[in-house]
Amino acid sequence: MSRPVERTARHGEPGGDLHVTSGPGLPRGLVIPAHELVEQFSRSSGPGGQSVNTTDSKVELRFDVASSVAFSDQQRSRALDRLGPLVVVTASEHRSQHRNRVAARTRLADRVREALAPPPATRVPTKPSRGAKRRRVDSKVRRGQLKALRGRVRDS
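RESULT FIELD:
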């Protein structure tokens, strides 16, 4: 069994800085420096051809949320609450290591974007108005009268 190869991503490679696009809670986006991302490669059990047993195409991407310099204090606390101190993303669905690296980075960016989004606004329950209640009761009465007319016809 081969040992997994561990490398830190360098700028300029597919494992350079990770750009998280803007979204709710991230109006200008976010850049996670490459030195905070650790990629680990190992043999994949996924799809492949003749070289599937010899290539390290599975990618495991690790990101330490607690010690990241990319977040503000508020963003860090929100990310720690929702993601935990360490995020690990794996990708092995492609045959090529490069495509798995891209897939893992995309998944990590999506998870960070979702974690930093503010919670949805709480719904304020409302009561039906007096007119709405009256209209509801009137329609029920009308419906009841209509159904009463469907009975047998009686001689008077």
